[in-house]
Design a protein that fits this description.
Oligomer: single chain
Number of helices: 12
Strand order of the largest sheet: 8-7-9-10-6-11-12-13-14
Largest sheet: 9 strands, mixed
CATH class of the largest domain: Alpha Beta
Radius of gyration: 26 Å
Strand content: 25-35%
Structural class: alpha/beta
């Protein structure tokens, strides 16, 4: 075996003979990591292979879709209706966010419908997983195994013939055929490729657990997300009970769906009416508090946005945003000062989205602006009012998509007053409509 040291970019997967601060292919900084490759000429030679089966035209194919429904409706919604029988799914999230808890609940449901479940963990012992299963009151049989050697895992899958497999986590699995340490690019790529062949060849749905880096993105090479069929992100805040499950890639369904869970002592419970919980405990006619209907996939959530302004004791006012982009907040504040004549140059501004949610769509712009204005002017906003609209740099309020759907959800929860681009064409006009 002839090994050669190379450097691989974690962003574009390109190779370089030596380390550089910047990738020469994609331009990413500090993305090159050291790895090794086998330079044996016998393994590098290409061999011609005969086709193993005759080709089939698309018109002549008979596609039979079969899904395994977990009966966890929020999870099935994000997957597109449940697990495909030959799918390779990657579940990613921050440490302590609830990945292992959700995985055990999925295993429980798979065992309940008669699937033989095999849970392989390379990080936790069998006793630790069993203790968590007892806390979750799991009743159906789940086969546990503590193992991180790929060849042993493949042999176990061949012998046990399970109907559902969990690999926790893919970053700690290693193969003796690859001369590098666990977690390296070559190891993760090779392990994922072998598991993908098992999933496709034996029609076994496999759930991989993945790590995230300090930026909250998927750890490891980008090719990992290309190999799997579905990438799921479990998001949330350890200080709040809500957890959001999103799909950033899904070959068998949409990627705009979101599942909402609540972390309890009995595990992750589905939240079937998220708007009611997000608005729980809201005061009557509060100052600096606005309700905005936002879209998450095909669903509409009513979310509370709070703002607080206070006189700054320093020369430079502070801007703090939780749940929204700070740059977007600065734009909204600039529009308020320029076109609504609200002076904020001597005020600290704090904006928070209640419940730990993160708002990214521009439909919340007008709600944020009115919340800041309410706090600055010390005037309350009616409790039965929802505000929505996108703000332009010229101070205009622009139309947003699916307004009827947002209004329908608001009226269902008792919000009968609407302030949007139909009632106000500019930020200044919105202030007049709201505060007179």
């Amino acid at each position: 075996m002839k090994l050669k040291t190379i450097y691989i970019c974690t962003k574009c997967n390109s190779k370089a003979p030596k380390w550089n601060g910047q990738c020469l292919q994609c331009g990413a900084w500090n993305s090159l990591v050291e790895d090794v490759e086998d330079m044996d000429p016998k393994k590098q030679s290409l061999k011609l292979a005969k086709p193993v089966a005759p080709t089939v035209t698309i018109s002549g194919m008979q596609v039979k879709k079969q899904r395994l429904i977990t009966k966890i409706s929020e999870f099935d919604r994000v997957l597109g209706g449940g697990f495909m029988t030959d799918s390779l799914v990657l579940l990613v999230g921050d440490p302590g966010i609830g990945k292992s808890t959700l995985t055990l609940q999925i295993c429980e449901k798979m065992a309940e419908i008669g699937r033989k479940v095999l849970y392989i963990s390379g990080e936790e012992s069998v006793e630790q997983i069993s203790d968590r299963a007892r806390r979750l009151k799991a009743k159906n049989p789940i086969n546990l195994l503590n193992l991180n050697d790929l060849e042993a895992i493949l042999a176990t899958l061949e012998a046990e013939k399970p109907g559902f497999v969990v690999i926790d986590s893919v970053q700690v699995m290693t193969s003796g055929d690859i001369a590098s340490q666990a977690g390296s690019i070559s190891q993760i790529r090779y392990v994922t490729e072998q598991l993908m062949q098992v999933a496709k060849g034996k029609n076994i749905p496999i759930l991989l657990i993945g790590h995230v880096n300090k930026d909250g993105n998927l750890a490891g090479p980008q090719v990992l997300s290309h190999l799997v069929d579905t990438v799921l992100f479990l998001e949330g805040d350890n200080f709040h009970q809500f957890r959001l499950l999103r799909a950033t890639k899904n070959r068998f369904g949409a990627v705009d769906e979101v599942g909402v869970f609540s972390m309890t002592e009995n595990g992750l419970e589905e939240v079937l009416n998220p708007s009611a919980l997000f608005l729980e405990g809201r005061a009557e006619s509060p100052i600096g508090s606005v309700i905005v209907p936002v879209l998450e996939g095909t669903r509409t959530f009513l979310v509370e946005v709070q703002a607080l302004t206070s006189y700054t004791h320093f020369g430079y006012p502070k801007r703090t945003a939780s749940g929204i982009d700070l740059n977007r907040l600065n734009i909204i504040l600039a529009v308020l000062e320029r076109y609504a004549k609200i002076k904020l140059d001597s005020s600290d501004v704090f904006v928070n989205v209640v419940g730990g949610l993160k708002l990214s769509e521009p439909a919340a712009d007008l709600a944020i602006a009115m919340a800041v204005a309410s706090s600055k002017l010390q005037k309350p906003i009616p409790s039965d009012l929802v505000i929505m609209g996108e703000i332009g740099l010229s101070g205009e309020v622009r139309n947003i998509s699916q307004t009827d759907k947002r209004i329908k959800e608001a009226k269902k929860l008792g919000f009968n007053k609407i302030l949007s681009s139909e009632q106000a064409k500019s930020v200044a006009q919105a202030l007049c409509e709201l505060f007179g």
